[in-house]
């Protein structure tokens, strides 16, 4: 692994994670007149409605915030709440800071109650709330108590999820969506959206953590990785959230930032219907997969071979990993047909699918690929249309703790259970891990749950990914976040 790290570090400029995260000094006149131009790889899939994956985009570009936030190590930090305390097994009390929504109204306890109540009622259930119900109560104008139906020692981390951001009350006027236009609390105000193509942000002068150093942000949503890299190279944009591995070589090294991530690429197999409903056939697919050609070929040694659901970015996982007990593979009848899907937003995924197709076909499968842009693919993926899916997932992205991902992705009631796994042993282990307060005991329990999940062959870990971001010359203060929730902050500026 050390050699792989050296190969990556040589051509790339590696900066401290979340560099400039809390920079909030007053901008000079030149920086104040300069708007930032940012290219994002994922288009908004639900019109920027907060209770969807669009919340991550809103967080990346500095529009929304929750009561808490996570630092580079996954530790919880104050955001709209300045402090919190656990008052009993089910309840936490949060003290709010003095802050203002983009519409000029103050952040108050009743506003927070409205936001958290709507989040708890969202349909489909938010992934970060899988297995949890929230009840928020205003105790005073600046104090909120949040009560859960089951003990949740990770509630402050959970409230850092972008999907649990707090918006002004008028954002919740409609019953079918939550409108973030001029209703957030971040350093930039969302003022306009042009479909799935562009968004316009202006600086919010009353931001509680200090006036942003850029006057605004012009966001372009560009799913094609080559187009994003070209936009940076030709000077059309200042910041690109993700540069494909294949494009890194054509950009100047000083324009590249490597971000260690908690992200793992996996092959998810449909356990509910089709050929992979048979555990022995899933085992045959797993044994057909070779990760070496993916790491060395597709990722050009800028990734690590998949060891489990959690890669090197969660450094504690390797020493606690448990070997799964797996089903013996069946001999696949020649001509067994499967659909293998993935998406184009991450340029390496279609290449990965092509390599997997070759490997699976050598094992007897006949593979038909279905490759689309993510917003077009997601509804069918959630519906279980595909036999297999190549997916990039970040462990602990929303809470800094992997339990929420395991619950949403691999339990019977999981809201993002693309493998359609329903295994009572897995559910029991995830539930037990979620209830533990002690960090070491919780980690041990998480790894027992990981072993049980891998034992079902619902997912085959492929590679542990590293993200490469593009930053134009003279741009400072880009937030290099391993969870990919923050990109543009108050200290991001030109010059």
UniProtKB/TrEMBL annotation:
<dbReference type="InterPro" id="IPR000914">
    <property type="entry name" value="SBP_5_dom"/>
</dbReference>
<protein>
    <submittedName>
        <fullName>Peptide/nickel transport system substrate-binding protein</fullName>
    </submittedName>
</protein>
<dbReference type="GO" id="GO:0015833">
    <property type="term" value="P:peptide transport"/>
</dbReference>
<dbReference type="InterPro" id="IPR030678">
    <property type="entry name" value="Peptide/Ni-bd"/>
</dbReference>
<dbReference type="Pfam" id="PF00496">
    <property type="entry name" value="SBP_bac_5"/>
</dbReference>
<dbReference type="GO" id="GO:0042597">
    <property type="term" value="C:periplasmic space"/>
</dbReference>
<feature type="domain" description="Solute-binding protein family 5">
    <location>
        <begin position="76"/>
        <end position="416"/>
    </location>
</feature>
<dbReference type="GO" id="GO:0043190">
    <property type="term" value="C:ATP-binding cassette (ABC) transporter complex"/>
</dbReference>
<feature type="signal peptide">
    <location>
        <begin position="1"/>
        <end position="23"/>
    </location>
</feature>
<dbReference type="GO" id="GO:1904680">
    <property type="term" value="F:peptide transmembrane transporter activity"/>
</dbReference>
<keyword id="KW-0732">Signal</keyword>
<dbReference type="InterPro" id="IPR039424">
    <property type="entry name" value="SBP_5"/>
</dbReference>
């Amino acid at each position: 692994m050390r050699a792989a790290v050296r190969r990556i570090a040589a051509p790339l400029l590696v900066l401290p994670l979340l560099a400039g995260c809390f920079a909030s000094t007053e901008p000079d006149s030149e920086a104040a007149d300069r708007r930032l131009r940012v290219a994002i790889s994922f288009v908004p899939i639900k019109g920027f409605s907060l209770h969807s994956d669009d919340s991550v985009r809103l967080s990346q570009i500095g529009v929304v915030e929750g009561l808490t936030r996570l630092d580079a190590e996954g530790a919880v930090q104050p955001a709209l709440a300045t402090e919190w305390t656990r008052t009993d097994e089910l309840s936490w009390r949060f003290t709010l800071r003095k802050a203002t929504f983009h519409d000029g109204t103050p952040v108050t306890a009743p506003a927070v109650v409205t936001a958290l109540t709507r989040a708890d009622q969202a349909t489909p259930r938010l992934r970060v709330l899988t297995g949890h119900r929230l009840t928020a109560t205003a105790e005073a104008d600046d104090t909120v108590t949040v009560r859960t139906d089951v003990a949740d020692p990770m509630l402050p981390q959970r409230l850092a999820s972008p999907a649990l951001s707090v918006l002004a009350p008028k954002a919740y006027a409609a019953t079918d969506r939550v409108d973030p236009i001029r209703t957030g609390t971040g350093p930039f105000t969302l003022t306009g959206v042009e479909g799935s193509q562009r968004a316009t942000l202006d600086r919010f002068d009353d931001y509680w953590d200090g006036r942003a150093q850029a006057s605004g942000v012009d966001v372009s949503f560009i799913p094609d990785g080559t187009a994003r890299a070209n936009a940076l190279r030709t000077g059309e944009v200042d910041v690109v959230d993700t540069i494909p591995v294949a494009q890194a070589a054509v950009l100047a090294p000083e324009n590249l930032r490597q971000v260690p991530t908690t992200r793992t690429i996996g092959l998810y197999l449909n356990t509910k219907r089709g050929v992979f409903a048979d555990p022995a056939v899933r085992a045959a697919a797993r044994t057909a997969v070779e990760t070496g050609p993916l790491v060395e070929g597709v990722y050009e040694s800028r990734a690590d071979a998949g060891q489990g659901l959690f890669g090197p970015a969660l450094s504690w996982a390797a020493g606690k990993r448990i070997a799964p007990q797996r089903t013996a593979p069946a001999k696949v009848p020649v001509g067994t047909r499967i659909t293998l899907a993935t998406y184009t937003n991450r340029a390496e995924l279609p290449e990965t699918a092509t390599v997997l197709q070759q490997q699976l076909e050598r094992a007897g499968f006949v593979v038909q690929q279905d490759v689309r842009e993510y917003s077009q693919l997601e509804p069918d993926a959630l519906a279980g249309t595909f036999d297999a899916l190549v997916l990039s997932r970040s462990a602990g992205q929303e809470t800094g703790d992997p339990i929420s991902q395991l619950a949403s992705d691999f339990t019977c009631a999981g809201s993002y259970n693309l493998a359609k796994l329903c295994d009572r042993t897995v559910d029991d282990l995830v539930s037990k891990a979620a209830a533990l307060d002690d960090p070491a005991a919780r980690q041990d329990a998480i790894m027992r749950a990981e072993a049980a999940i891998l034992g079902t062959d619902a997912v085959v870990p492929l590679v542990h990914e590293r993200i490469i971001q593009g930053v134009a010359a003279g741009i400072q203060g880009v937030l290099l976040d391993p969870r990919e929730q923050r990109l543009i902050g108050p200290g991001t500026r030109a010059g």
